Each structure stands twice: as structure tokens, then as C-alpha cells.
Amino acid sequence: MTKYDAILLSSFGGPEGQDDVIPFLRNVTRGRGVPDERLEEVAHHYRVHGGVSPINEQNRQLRAALEAELARRGIDLPIHWGNRNWDPYFADAVRDAHRAGHDRLLALVTSAYTSYSGVGQYREDFEKALAETDLADVVTIDRIREYFDHPGFVTPLVEGVDAAVAELTSDSSAGAADAVARDDIHVLFVTHSIPTAAAAASGPQFGTGGAYVAQHCAVAHAVSEAAAAGIPWSLVYQSRSGDPRTPWLEPDINDAIADLAAAGDTRAVIIVPFGFVSDHMEVVWDLDNEALSTAADNELRAVRVPTPGTHPAFVAGLVDLIEERLNDIAPERRAHVTDLGPWPDHEPVGARTDKVEAR
User: Fold this and answer.
1) Which CATH number goes with the domain that contains 193?
2) Is residue 190 a part of any domain in this protein?
């Protein structure tokens, strides 16, 4: 077994009050020269919800659920929680872990796919945290692999799509006149758009769109085959930002909905936010507000599938991934549901990379 002292739950972070919103957005856009006037446009999304992003509370719930599952399995590993852009920050989490005698950390990142923001930037965050705390020669941070096609992540999505299909096709869901046939449904698998250059850089060997697009397509195919066989689906994107002259992944979900309505052979859409592990502000605003409004404006019925959140299968799957590292499970024995998996491990950050016998 590989010895770890604790888990480092690693996430994006979000504001928890109106006074936090602009400072948080400054953190997110640090180094890009974005003026506060532009930040206020995005701040509106948070201010409508009291200045509170749902992500921090979701991480508290996920942490509690993970602690319970670890305890149920008899795994004695405490969980420290750190964020990229808001309190608790990574440096604080690393410092607290070290004070508690936890110097060999296994990072669980709330990002399932390969991209700079989901992989490279977290590695930079960890390196920065070790430098800020002067613990680079003491603390080691390993990272759990990307889990986009782990059964624990995919199962809640399959259940959600299956339930959405049943809701739309049931005579009792909204009256017989509003029920739709399977042939009239289109599934929209939606994830965060990123610049096309960044997508390509995530894994050029996978062709156009890199590993980022390839992983999403593989998961969409797996979910569709399991829960919506025969129903057409598309990979679409949301939450584009930045310089409009920079090419980003397309189509935008709102454009896709409008195009489906104009084509005339779709009566309902199922929106699957499978690029997110929980209901981030991008889900709450860009999908529950804007995308659902676009569907209504185009006279399409729409159902938004839940994110994995704290679904029991997702929580159990994350602990499976922890045990995978604790027990040095060989790649050929690691769980995955697509031909792309299992995704390989990453090199640890920090100096102590040796493995010792577990206590």
C-alpha cells in the first residue's frame, strides 16, 4: 500500500456574500487586465443569488459524504479542503495539513476532464501553495487521475438521462397532449467552452479538440447508449468568455437549441451538464436561467439533468479512486467505461515522492 496522511479536496472556490463577489472575480481573472466594469457584468449572476456561489456549500456536503464513506470502509484519512480562487485557499489547506502532521497528501480535484484549467492550473496551484508555505521540501501532493469515465461519475448521468426520457415521454408528466415521442427528443450534452487552442493542447494526439473533446464525446456516447439509445445527441458548450476574436469551442447551447427548433423535428431537449461535478454558478445561471429560457422561447420542452453532486454512486466512486491509489491498483484493473480510460496518473508535486509501508 502507498501511505498517504490525508486527502486534499481541491476545487475552484466561490464567493459567499455580496462583498466577496468582485474580489473573487478579480482572483479568477488575475493577470488578464479585466476592468471592474466588465467584472460587474458577470457579478450580476452571483448578485441575483445573494452574492453566494453554490460551489462552496456543495464542497462542504461532498466533504461530509466522503468522510462518511471513508469511515464506512475503515479508511482513516482526514480531508483538508482548499480552493483556487476563494477561502479556504490551497496555501491555508496545506499549512493546516502540515500542522496536523499530514505531509503526504492525495489531491481529489473536482474536475473530471483533461484541460489546462482542470489539470495544469491545479498543478501550478499546488506548486504555488508549497512555495508560499515554504513546505516544498516537506509536503508532497499526489493527484487522483481524471475520472471522466469512471462508473461513479457516469452512473448518475445515466440515471438522470433515463429519468428525463421517462418524464418527457410519460402521458402523466404534463398531460397526454404534452408527452413527446422518443423520436422528438434531442439530448444536449453540455460542457464549459474553452479556447480551441487550449482544447487542442490538452492532447494533440486525439485530433481536433484534443483530449478535452475526445473525453466528452466518449462519455456522451456511453451515457447515450445506456439511457437514450436511438435518441439523437449533440456535444454543445456554454459559458464562453474572453476576447471575442479568440476562437472557442462551439456551438453554444443556446444557438443549438434555436437551430433544433428551426429545423422543426425536435419537440423537447434534455440538457446534460456533464462537464461539471456539481451545480456551479455556470449551471445555475447559464443553464437553469438562460438555456431553459431559450428552450421556452423556442417552444421546446426542456429537462435539465442533475449533476453528480453527492449522488451515492459518485461519492463511492471517488473513494474507489482513493483506494485505487492507496492500494497501487494496476492500470489494467482500474475501472472505466470508455475506450479512453483509465486515464494515467500524474507526477506528484513536492519533494517526498518515495513510497513506504502503510502504518
Assistant:
1) 3.40.50.1400
2) yes
What is the rounded CA–CA span in Å between residue 81 and residue 258? 41
103 within domain boundaries: yes
Q: Do 169 and 298 sit in the same domain of this protein?
A: yes
- At residue 2, what are phi and psi to the nearest 5 degrees? -90, 130
Same domain membership, residue 141 and residue 155: no
pLDDT at 359 over 50: no
pLDDT in tens, 124-165: 999 999 999 999 999 999 999 999 999 999 999 999 999 999
C-alpha cell at 150: 469512471
CA-based nearest residue to 249, from 216, 225, 279, 281:
216
- Encode pLDDT of 74-101 as tens digits: 999 999 999 999 999 999 999 999 999 9
How far from chain centre, in Å, is Cα 69?
20
Looking at the predicted structure, is the pLDDT value of residue 357 above 70?
no
Structural domain boundaries, residue 176: 151-304
Q: Are residues 166 and 137 in the same domain?
A: no
Residues near 161 by Cβ (< 8 Å), separated by ≥ 6?
A: 187, 223, 224, 226, 227, 228, 270, 272, 305
Q: Is the pTM higher than 0.85? A: yes
User: Is residue 28 domain-resident?
Assistant: no
Q: Is 72 a member of any domain?
A: yes
Question: Positive or negative CA dihedral for 287, 291, 296, 297?
Answer: positive
